[in-house]
Recover the amino acids of this structure.
């Protein structure tokens, strides 16, 4: 199977990326809210297994082949294992740190992609100005959240949650590299996503059973809404769109746009939770915008 791969991001890609970043920014808040009633690993398993079922039904409805032999099994197993480890780190980490801090640490992923992609596709090597743009964008994000770094707002074990966030960011970058460096780069977005959701769902379900944390006796409407949002909107729809983008556009440039996600997270926190918008956030927004422009220059 051949794949048409574009060298630059067009309007469709940019609009899709902004939408994904908005949804992912809201996702951290949704996951944090639901952890109060649904254990973290069980929550991660539910969203993966539910998303896998939706992807399977979608592919069957559209007549997309999922089980043909195309040499993608090895890459699919690797991507699925990395995906499971990534979300295990995220959901466990949210017990010890805030959703905002988790979002910051997850988004070291673009650095992992930028450093690894030249070994996979020499045409995606970043020039010095583009690397500077990536650094500028991430520095802006870190600056926007730095107000809470000096105090462990989430408790004494906040360092553990932060460390798990860093690990999740590295694993996310590694997942993108595994997809682009294997036969999955030529597979359909549906097949790529199904590998990750099915494998991660099973692995996380086993881990949740072994950890055996209690659920709330009854789930609130807010928790049900959170689970629906995470499973249907984020895990199914937005990830399907993301892997379609990875298949058709340069991974390094896509990764640079994901730095918008933690900024969206803070904006949504201000809108939904009444959190203040400070001068640091304005600086962060300007730095992210400038960094993305540098990375995507001709």
């Amino acid at each position: 199977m051949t794949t048409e791969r574009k060298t630059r991001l067009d309007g469709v890609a940019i609009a899709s990326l902004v939408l994904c970043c908005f949804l992912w920014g809201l996702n951290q808040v949704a996951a944090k809210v639901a952890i109060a009633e649904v254990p973290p690993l069980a929550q991660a398993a539910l969203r993966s297994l539910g998303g896998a079922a939706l992807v399977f039904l979608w592919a069957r409805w559209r007549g997309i082949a999922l089980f043909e032999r195309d040499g993608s099994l090895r890459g699919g197993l690797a991507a699925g294992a990395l995906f499971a480890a990534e979300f295990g780190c995220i959901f466990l980490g949210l017990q010890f740190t805030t959703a905002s801090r988790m979002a910051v640490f997850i988004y070291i992923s673009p650095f992992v992609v930028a450093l690894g992609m030249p070994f996979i596709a020499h045409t995606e090597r970043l020039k010095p100005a583009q690397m500077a743009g990536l650094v500028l964008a991430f520095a802006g994000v870190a600056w926007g959240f730095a107000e809470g770094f000096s105090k462990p707002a989430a408790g004494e074990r906040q360092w553990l949650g932060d460390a798990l966030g860093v690990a999740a960011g590295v694993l996310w970058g590694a997942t993108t590299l595994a997809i682009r460096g294997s036969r999955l780069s030529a597979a359909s977005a549906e097949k790529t996503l199904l590998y990750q959701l099915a494998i991660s769902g099973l692995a996380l379900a086993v881990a949740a059973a072994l950890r055996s944390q209690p659920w709330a006796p009854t789930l609130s409407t807010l928790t049900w809404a959170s689970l629906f949002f995470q499973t249907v909107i984020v895990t199914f729809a937005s990830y399907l769109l993301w892997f379609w983008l990875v298949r058709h556009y340069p991974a390094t440039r896509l990764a640079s746009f994901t730095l918008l996600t933690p900024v969206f997270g803070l904006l949504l926190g201000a809108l939904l939770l009444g959190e203040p918008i400070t001068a640091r956030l304005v600086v962060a927004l300007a730095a992210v915008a400038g960094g993305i422009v540098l990375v995507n220059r001709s």
